[in-house]
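Example 3.2
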Amino acid sequence: QVQLVESGGGLVQPGGSLRLSCAASGSIVSIYAMGWYRQAPGKQRELVAAITSGGSTNYAASVKGRFTISRDNAKNTVYLQMNRLKPDNSAVYYCHADTVIIRYDDDGGSCSPAASWGQGTQVTVSS
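Structure, written as tokens:
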């Protein structure tokens, strides 16, 4: 299976910046897309930003112009640069990946799709 490990979260003052990283590992054949979701207490998990293998990006309207998603395909890593952070941005941020992986059985291996989630990293924006 795919393992997604996030890093870069923490406590930051309003107006500050953080850069989140997510590294994917495992029996990955290809990655269709990677992205970041967030979930604040009492709220639904929502898409923050996503990027496809071709470089197309999607952003939540609330973060456009402040957040930038990027990807290093050679390292299977996605980044989220967050600038001009607001208290409203406080949440647990989760990395997500849509991939094709190799699954092994007694007869060998085969390819199959897999949707994977990281464990989450806390982002707190507060004075």
